[in-house]
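Good day; I would like, with your permission, to put a structural problem before you. What I wish to show you is a protein chain and, alongside it, a tokenised description of its three-dimensional fold. Please examine both parts with care and let me know of anything in them that strikes you as inconsistent. Thank you for your consideration; the sequence and its tokens are set out here:

***
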Amino acid sequence: METYDYIVIGAGSAGCTVITRLIEAGKSVLALEAGPSERSPLVSIPAMFFRLIGSKRFWMYQSEPEAGLKGRPFFVPQGKTVGGGSSVNAMIYIRGQAEDYDDWRDAGCPGWGYDDVLPFFIKAEANERLAAPLHGTDGPLVVSDSKYRNPVGYAFLRAAQEAGLPFNDDFNGVQQDGVGFYQNTISAAKRGSTAATYLARVRSNRLLTLRTEAVVEELVLENGAAVGVCYRGAGSEKIQARAKEEVILSAGALASPKILLLNGIGPAAHLGEVGIPVRRDLPGVGENFRDHVGAPCYAKLNVPWGFWAQDRGLRAVRHGLEYLLFKRGILNSNLIETGGFIDTSGAGRPDVQFHVIPVLSGDVGKDPPPFHGMSVNPCVLRPKSRGRMRLRSANGADPILLNANVLQAREDVDTLIRGVKLARQIFRSPSLAKLIEQELTPGGPDQIADAVIEDHIRTVAKTVYHPAGTCKMGSDDMAVVDHQLRVRGVPRLRVADASIMPQVTSGNTNAPSIMIGERCADFMLRASGA
């Protein structure tokens, strides 16, 4: 029997944050990560992240055939390594809109309004260019400007301004609207994951026990309260560990609800169907699945400015030497250097985000065409469609049963139609038009019918890798955790990751997940009197 003050299940974006803050407060922590170490050049070199998808550092989740995608499954790869999503993502730093958090507060999450969460974003951040009152400069997480900028990105920004969109120098500032360069979590030419920033501060501390390739098989409850876990280590041995204070579930938006369900915490009817005894009837576990869904628009370039074939032959050797010797060049890029946030409906808040990539980038398992191109990917920022995650059986080794219900809400389709129209308008603006040999999809004349655009959307729509909401926070009957992230009806158990979001934030979810980790640690340390 191992005994620690706290046990954290999952060493991802939020998990590493929680672990670090607990260790810094003098608490002993057992951290259990199902994936391997993050220590690999594929992880640390910024531009190599695209090589990771499908590797051992990913959970390759997929849904059942989706009616909204013409019967295609919806693939949702998620990080499975120390650092979690922050070790495999595109390193874009976006907090979301102030209204996102005010909406959470007003929906039954007191203490989660923008004014409440802003201090924790600032606490986390070490911004190399921006400072008070909206940015931090002393936190663990380095937030920087791109050191390599592809000319396609500059052309997109000029074309977007020609199409009438404003330039924005800080998407995390007073307003989100506009186009610009994304700030990122790259430091000294290396990925600044929560493993490389937060966890690095305490990795050698004797209070931390970090186990990789450790699979949690049981949450140990006594008198209904969480007191520990049983897990299998890398050598397949079964180990029991006890927590003096609390257990924190930080395994991600699909793994966290799976662990709860496997341990009898979830909808009683579903647990009965798969033969798992009910320990706590919580109907919201696995419900409220949300994700940002994008519909890429593709164009073939008439200039060799894209990323296609840059990782092959002599080009790869040159880029590698430039990076190793001088820490500069294309390998410094996070690939998705530019983008923007646009209010396409006139409602007063951006409802579409653009990710711009100087390569033709499709869904999981689809190889891009063999020529230089670019992708402009509009995505729905606040999807109305909601999915559901369930178990196939009581066997934890079985894949989850996911019905993502992508594009089931008409509002999501209409938003993407507006986003695709705007992307095509930008393609046709002078600064990009002169670089584009052919618009590939959706293609056609300047004006095409909405039905044609909708068909394109349902053909190519894909995840933007931001699943959330499956253990939502709130005070209603479908809430899984309360406003201090405590699992309802299960003392000494909390959830801290994107699964607790009542609605997914308006933008990339890594920074909000880190903020959630900061808040969770703060709640626990206050409760313990530390």
